[in-house]
Specification:
Arginase, Chain A, 174 residues, binds zinc ion, 5 strands, two-stranded antiparallel sheet, 36% helix
């Protein structure tokens, strides 16, 4: 059985500036390595859909989602906190990044793939219910987990977070 590779071109358009450590280059680097290793052609390619508001509202306060949507800049960057910024594409990219996690869960639950890799930005495991944090606007991981629990009726979901700030953000939802 195959592995799904889920991404979207808008994820490359979210850009927090050339000096920011979380950059579109990260996704290019991942894809380059998958190609160089000869793995890329074996992956089942999928475009990330937008997460719906209902899917986001399982983990984020509706007011928070609305504030993010309303504050997308026409040009340049707006800072949500010291290290999390939005450009004109960031909200749409964030919807795709969260939607990727939802699609990944759906594909695995349908038995269409064995596992799924979401190559998306903005990243999503530090954001809280109503708070952007650590480069994250929405908590993609929590949105995916909530979808598995509430839509697919799973009883438990394990989240393996190997970031140095392990569990920050995501544990906000437990
Ligand atoms: Zn971190």
């Amino acid at each position: 059985m195959q592995t799904a590779y889920i991404n979207h071109p808008l994820c490359l358009k979210h850009d927090m500036g050339s000096n920011h450590p979380e950059s579109p280059l990260r996704l290019h680097a991942i894809e380059d390595q998958l190609i160089a290793a000869g793995i890329f052609d074996f992956l089942q390619q999928h475009q990330a859909p937008e997460a719906t508001l209902a899917q986001l509202h399982r983990v984020h306060e509706a007011d928070y989602v609305e504030i993010i949507a309303k504050n997308v800049p026409q040009q340049g960057l707006i800072y949500l906190d010291a290290d999390t910024a939005m450009n004109p594409f960031s909200y749409q990219a964030a919807l795709r990044a969260a939607g990727a996690a939802v699609l990944g869960v759906d594909l695995v639950m349908a038995g269409q793939v064995e596992n799924a890799f979401c190559s998306v930005r903005p990243p999503g495991h530090h954001a809280g219910r109503a708070q952007p944090m650590g480069f994250c606007i929405f908590n993609n991981v929590a949105v995916g987990a909530a979808h598995a629990l509430q839509h697919h009726g799973l009883q438990r979901v394990a989240i393996a977070d190997f970031d140095v700030h392990h569990g920050n953000g995501t544990e906000n939802f437990s």
